[in-house]
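Data deposition worksheet. Section B asks for the primary sequence of the deposited chain exactly as it was used as input, without tags or linkers unless they were present during the calculation. Section C holds the resulting structure in token form. Section D is free text for depositor observations; keep each observation to a single sentence. Incomplete worksheets are returned to the depositor.
Section A, Depositor: J.P.
Section B:
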Amino acid sequence: MVERSVKQLKLIFVFAGFAYRPIGGYKVAYQYVNFLSERGHKVQIVHGISKDAKATNDIVARFFSLVFKRFRKCVLPWFNLSKAVQVNFIGHISNLALQDSDAVVLVGFTATQQLNKSNFQNIPGGGIFVQLDQHPDLLNITSSFEEIVGVFKQKNILHVSIPGIVQEMLSDIGLKSHAIAPGVDSEKFYHKGINSQKLSVLTFKSNIEHKAFSVAVEAMRYVHHEMPEVDFYCFGSETVLDIPDWITDLGYLSDEKLSDAYNRSSIFLVASSEEGFGLTALEAMSCGSVVVSTKNGGVQSFLEDGVNSKLAEIGDSAGLAESCIVILRDRNLLRELSVNAVSASANYSLDVSNSKFEEFLLNLK
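Section C:
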């Protein structure tokens, strides 16, 4: 049981969209929401359902709110969101009506982009806008980049960012941020000591371009050619076509089953061209799987090449494959990197991350 905070805050978390499938940034924000609710803070979530501000979308949003209230686990099966948290849907974030609160937390730059300037009026109750920055996607919003940065500075929006590439990006455009690293839920993701003699490689499947699943497949293809005795797996809720028949598609995995998959995998392969942090890689490390990854920006916060992982250049499927082969052919190296991975992941506790975020919010006024 989490001890309740002496000072209770009224908080609103604003998401530009809704994630029917697991998304790292949403997962981190939901973890904050659950923790803050358990601590006695009054937390509300607002999800936009469309990029279009049509009036008909508000009707659909009201229907979504009713359905979510009755069938929460069916609508959001991949995360156990606390029932104490009020969840509402609106047609478009520009229709957000500010309520009395101590802080309005904007999850991701897209939420800020979709807000009208009128939304940035004073928050009833004297609250403060907080931008939760977990991915360098601001650089991709080219059409309104300068306008959004101007809003950040003019309205004195406070930033909480992931340390590393995201914090550096904000610094480069003149924005200060309070860095808080995401944490691993050690009650779900931990090294279970599964002694599997069978070598295997696991990766995440996705149609999102920067996840670079095709690069991961090419790397695995090379390893498969050189070491046909190795098993290959992928997981993820998206339907991806043309997966080779020698790769077993595990589909969507609950946290419990994903933890088992990490524990049974010799290597967790990350081929992304861009990551704000890379929470799946950190979860894999905590389960003893050795991460072989591209230098995608986010993972360098916790991966150390040759110490607890192996790193390759972005897009270098051959380099990823070579690293996998070197590790898989040397059981002593595999064991050493695995032990170091578990040790390094212990520095990223979910409890510590949650507490730091709460402390930041409590000190806003």
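Section D:
The chain has a mean pLDDT of 90.
The chain has twelve helices and 13 strands.
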